[in-house]
Design a protein that fits this description.
The chain has ten helices and eight strands. The protein is α/β, with parallel strands linked by helices. The protein has a domain of about 160 residues: Rossmann fold (3-Layer(aba) Sandwich). The longest helix is centred in the N-terminal third of the chain and has 14 residues.
Amino acid sequence: MKFLLVFDFDHTIIDENSDTWIVKCAPDRKLPNGLRNSYQPGHWTEYMGRVFVYLGDNGVKEDEMKRTMTTIPFTAGMIDLLGFIGENKELFDCIIVSDSNTVFIDWILKAADFHDVFDEVFTNPATFSSSGYLTVQNFHAHHCAKCPKNLCKRKVLKEFLDKQLERGISYTQIVYIGDGGNDLCPVMFLRKNDIAMPRQGYTLEKKISQLAQDLSPVQCSVVVWSSASDIMSYLKLLIKE
Protein backbone atom coordinates (compact mmCIF):
# COMPACT_ATOMS: atom_id res chain seq x y z
CA MET A 1 0.00 0.00 0.00
CA LYS A 2 1.73 3.15 -1.22
CA PHE A 3 0.52 6.61 -2.11
CA LEU A 4 2.00 8.81 -4.80
CA LEU A 5 2.15 12.50 -3.90
CA VAL A 6 2.61 14.83 -6.87
CA PHE A 7 3.55 18.41 -6.02
CA ASP A 8 3.71 21.54 -8.09
CA PHE A 9 6.46 23.87 -6.82
CA ASP A 10 5.71 27.61 -7.29
CA HIS A 11 2.83 28.85 -5.09
CA THR A 12 2.48 25.30 -3.75
CA ILE A 13 5.68 24.21 -1.98
CA ILE A 14 7.02 27.77 -1.94
CA ASP A 15 4.67 30.70 -1.46
CA GLU A 16 6.02 32.65 -4.45
CA ASN A 17 6.94 32.18 -8.10
CA SER A 18 10.65 31.33 -8.22
CA ASP A 19 10.99 32.75 -11.75
CA THR A 20 9.64 36.18 -10.81
CA TRP A 21 11.52 36.19 -7.46
CA ILE A 22 14.89 36.08 -9.27
CA VAL A 23 14.12 39.60 -10.59
CA LYS A 24 15.18 40.84 -7.11
CA CYS A 25 18.74 40.32 -8.41
CA ALA A 26 18.23 42.72 -11.34
CA PRO A 27 19.40 46.35 -11.24
CA ASP A 28 16.76 48.30 -9.22
CA ARG A 29 15.04 44.92 -8.69
CA LYS A 30 13.11 45.25 -11.95
CA LEU A 31 13.32 44.33 -15.62
CA PRO A 32 13.29 46.82 -18.51
CA ASN A 33 9.84 47.20 -20.12
CA GLY A 34 10.95 45.79 -23.47
CA LEU A 35 12.10 42.57 -21.81
CA ARG A 36 9.04 42.36 -19.56
CA ASN A 37 6.71 42.78 -22.52
CA SER A 38 8.52 40.18 -24.64
CA TYR A 39 6.68 37.23 -23.03
CA GLN A 40 4.38 35.31 -25.37
CA PRO A 41 1.72 32.97 -23.92
CA GLY A 42 2.92 29.36 -23.77
CA HIS A 43 6.59 30.38 -24.18
CA TRP A 44 7.58 31.16 -20.59
CA THR A 45 10.84 29.18 -20.71
CA GLU A 46 12.15 31.19 -23.67
CA TYR A 47 11.18 34.36 -21.85
CA MET A 48 13.10 33.25 -18.72
CA GLY A 49 16.09 32.50 -20.96
CA ARG A 50 16.10 36.19 -21.96
CA VAL A 51 15.75 37.24 -18.30
CA PHE A 52 18.81 35.14 -17.39
CA VAL A 53 20.82 36.72 -20.24
CA TYR A 54 19.87 40.17 -18.92
CA LEU A 55 20.96 39.21 -15.39
CA GLY A 56 24.23 37.79 -16.73
CA ASP A 57 24.87 40.91 -18.81
CA ASN A 58 24.41 42.95 -15.63
CA GLY A 59 27.03 40.95 -13.75
CA VAL A 60 24.65 38.93 -11.57
CA LYS A 61 26.61 35.87 -10.45
CA GLU A 62 25.58 32.40 -9.33
CA ASP A 63 26.21 32.98 -5.61
CA GLU A 64 24.03 36.11 -5.56
CA MET A 65 21.23 34.24 -7.33
CA LYS A 66 21.51 31.36 -4.87
CA ARG A 67 21.42 33.69 -1.85
CA THR A 68 18.29 35.39 -3.23
CA MET A 69 16.49 32.16 -4.10
CA THR A 70 17.02 30.57 -0.70
CA THR A 71 15.15 33.48 0.97
CA ILE A 72 11.84 32.47 -0.69
CA PRO A 73 9.32 31.57 2.02
CA PHE A 74 7.74 28.13 2.06
CA THR A 75 3.94 28.07 1.98
CA ALA A 76 2.32 28.09 5.46
CA GLY A 77 2.58 24.65 7.09
CA MET A 78 4.74 23.24 4.26
CA ILE A 79 7.87 22.68 6.38
CA ASP A 80 5.84 20.52 8.80
CA LEU A 81 4.16 18.68 5.92
CA LEU A 82 7.46 17.84 4.19
CA GLY A 83 8.88 16.73 7.54
CA PHE A 84 5.88 14.44 8.04
CA ILE A 85 6.26 12.94 4.54
CA GLY A 86 9.99 12.45 5.16
CA GLU A 87 9.22 10.48 8.33
CA ASN A 88 6.71 8.28 6.47
CA LYS A 89 8.58 7.54 3.24
CA GLU A 90 7.60 3.86 3.43
CA LEU A 91 4.01 5.01 2.72
CA PHE A 92 4.65 7.84 0.27
CA ASP A 93 6.48 8.23 -3.00
CA CYS A 94 6.79 11.91 -3.72
CA ILE A 95 7.59 13.78 -6.95
CA ILE A 96 7.68 17.40 -8.10
CA VAL A 97 6.39 18.39 -11.55
CA SER A 98 7.14 22.06 -12.06
CA ASP A 99 7.53 24.82 -14.59
CA SER A 100 10.47 26.25 -12.60
CA ASN A 101 13.96 24.83 -13.28
CA THR A 102 16.41 22.30 -11.85
CA VAL A 103 18.84 24.90 -10.44
CA PHE A 104 16.23 26.88 -8.48
CA ILE A 105 14.44 23.83 -7.07
CA ASP A 106 17.73 22.16 -6.15
CA TRP A 107 18.97 25.23 -4.28
CA ILE A 108 15.73 25.71 -2.36
CA LEU A 109 15.25 22.05 -1.36
CA LYS A 110 18.90 21.56 -0.36
CA ALA A 111 19.02 24.77 1.70
CA ALA A 112 15.99 23.56 3.70
CA ASP A 113 17.27 19.95 3.78
CA PHE A 114 14.21 18.55 1.97
CA HIS A 115 16.01 16.96 -0.95
CA ASP A 116 15.50 13.41 0.32
CA VAL A 117 11.73 13.83 0.66
CA PHE A 118 11.35 13.75 -3.14
CA ASP A 119 12.03 10.69 -5.27
CA GLU A 120 12.19 12.63 -8.53
CA VAL A 121 11.93 16.21 -9.75
CA PHE A 122 10.59 16.86 -13.26
CA THR A 123 11.28 20.43 -14.36
CA ASN A 124 13.06 22.47 -17.02
CA PRO A 125 16.80 21.63 -17.09
CA ALA A 126 19.00 24.60 -16.19
CA THR A 127 22.73 25.00 -15.92
CA PHE A 128 25.39 27.72 -15.66
CA SER A 129 27.40 28.27 -18.83
CA SER A 130 31.20 28.62 -18.80
CA SER A 131 30.71 32.39 -18.83
CA GLY A 132 28.56 32.18 -15.68
CA TYR A 133 25.17 32.76 -17.31
CA LEU A 134 22.20 30.65 -16.22
CA THR A 135 20.61 28.89 -19.20
CA VAL A 136 17.32 26.97 -19.26
CA GLN A 137 15.72 24.55 -21.71
CA ASN A 138 12.25 23.13 -22.28
CA PHE A 139 11.64 19.97 -20.26
CA HIS A 140 10.37 17.99 -23.26
CA ALA A 141 8.43 18.17 -26.50
CA HIS A 142 4.75 17.16 -26.48
CA HIS A 143 1.58 17.38 -28.56
CA CYS A 144 -0.87 18.59 -25.91
CA ALA A 145 -2.77 21.65 -27.12
CA LYS A 146 -3.81 22.56 -23.55
CA CYS A 147 -0.30 22.94 -22.12
CA PRO A 148 2.59 25.40 -22.49
CA LYS A 149 5.16 24.40 -25.09
CA ASN A 150 7.84 23.34 -22.60
CA LEU A 151 5.86 21.01 -20.32
CA CYS A 152 2.73 18.85 -20.28
CA LYS A 153 2.38 17.64 -16.71
CA ARG A 154 -0.07 14.91 -17.71
CA LYS A 155 2.56 13.42 -20.02
CA VAL A 156 5.14 13.52 -17.21
CA LEU A 157 2.76 11.84 -14.76
CA LYS A 158 1.68 9.16 -17.22
CA GLU A 159 5.29 8.32 -18.18
CA PHE A 160 6.32 8.17 -14.52
CA LEU A 161 3.45 5.79 -13.66
CA ASP A 162 4.28 3.58 -16.68
CA LYS A 163 7.92 3.41 -15.62
CA GLN A 164 6.94 2.55 -12.04
CA LEU A 165 4.63 -0.23 -13.29
CA GLU A 166 7.53 -1.73 -15.23
CA ARG A 167 9.38 -1.85 -11.90
CA GLY A 168 6.38 -3.55 -10.31
CA ILE A 169 5.25 -0.48 -8.37
CA SER A 170 1.63 0.65 -8.46
CA TYR A 171 -0.12 3.11 -6.17
CA THR A 172 -3.22 2.81 -4.01
CA GLN A 173 -4.00 6.44 -4.71
CA ILE A 174 -2.46 9.47 -6.35
CA VAL A 175 -2.73 12.79 -4.51
CA TYR A 176 -2.04 15.78 -6.78
CA ILE A 177 -1.22 19.06 -4.99
CA GLY A 178 -1.03 22.22 -7.06
CA ASP A 179 -2.36 25.67 -7.80
CA GLY A 180 -1.94 26.69 -11.43
CA GLY A 181 -3.75 26.42 -14.74
CA ASN A 182 -1.13 23.99 -16.04
CA ASP A 183 -2.06 21.58 -13.21
CA LEU A 184 -5.50 20.99 -14.72
CA CYS A 185 -4.26 18.70 -17.51
CA PRO A 186 -2.75 16.10 -15.11
CA VAL A 187 -5.75 16.43 -12.74
CA MET A 188 -8.05 15.45 -15.61
CA PHE A 189 -5.93 12.31 -16.06
CA LEU A 190 -6.60 11.17 -12.44
CA ARG A 191 -9.07 8.35 -11.78
CA LYS A 192 -12.08 8.15 -9.48
CA ASN A 193 -10.00 6.83 -6.58
CA ASP A 194 -7.42 9.65 -6.78
CA ILE A 195 -7.46 13.05 -5.13
CA ALA A 196 -6.80 16.50 -6.53
CA MET A 197 -5.83 19.10 -3.94
CA PRO A 198 -6.05 22.58 -5.48
CA ARG A 199 -4.90 25.59 -3.46
CA GLN A 200 -7.81 27.75 -2.37
CA GLY A 201 -8.38 30.89 -4.44
CA TYR A 202 -5.85 29.97 -7.14
CA THR A 203 -6.37 29.17 -10.84
CA LEU A 204 -6.57 25.38 -10.50
CA GLU A 205 -9.43 25.57 -7.98
CA LYS A 206 -11.30 28.04 -10.22
CA LYS A 207 -10.85 25.85 -13.31
CA ILE A 208 -12.04 22.71 -11.49
CA SER A 209 -15.17 24.47 -10.22
CA GLN A 210 -15.82 25.89 -13.69
CA LEU A 211 -15.75 22.34 -15.11
CA ALA A 212 -18.26 21.21 -12.46
CA GLN A 213 -20.56 24.11 -13.41
CA ASP A 214 -20.24 23.09 -17.08
CA LEU A 215 -21.37 19.58 -16.01
CA SER A 216 -18.08 17.98 -17.05
CA PRO A 217 -16.48 17.59 -13.60
CA VAL A 218 -13.11 15.93 -13.04
CA GLN A 219 -13.31 12.21 -12.20
CA CYS A 220 -11.21 12.31 -9.03
CA SER A 221 -12.17 13.65 -5.59
CA VAL A 222 -11.33 17.29 -4.95
CA VAL A 223 -10.09 18.56 -1.58
CA VAL A 224 -9.22 22.25 -1.38
CA TRP A 225 -6.37 23.46 0.89
CA SER A 226 -5.29 26.87 2.09
CA SER A 227 -2.42 25.82 4.38
CA ALA A 228 -0.20 22.77 4.04
CA SER A 229 -1.45 21.69 7.47
CA ASP A 230 -4.80 20.97 5.70
CA ILE A 231 -2.87 18.61 3.40
CA MET A 232 -1.14 16.97 6.35
CA SER A 233 -4.46 16.38 8.16
CA TYR A 234 -5.85 14.81 5.02
CA LEU A 235 -2.82 12.52 4.50
CA LYS A 236 -3.06 11.38 8.13
CA LEU A 237 -6.68 10.36 7.49
CA LEU A 238 -5.68 8.54 4.30
CA ILE A 239 -3.02 6.39 5.98
CA LYS A 240 -5.38 5.53 8.85
CA GLU A 241 -8.05 4.16 6.51
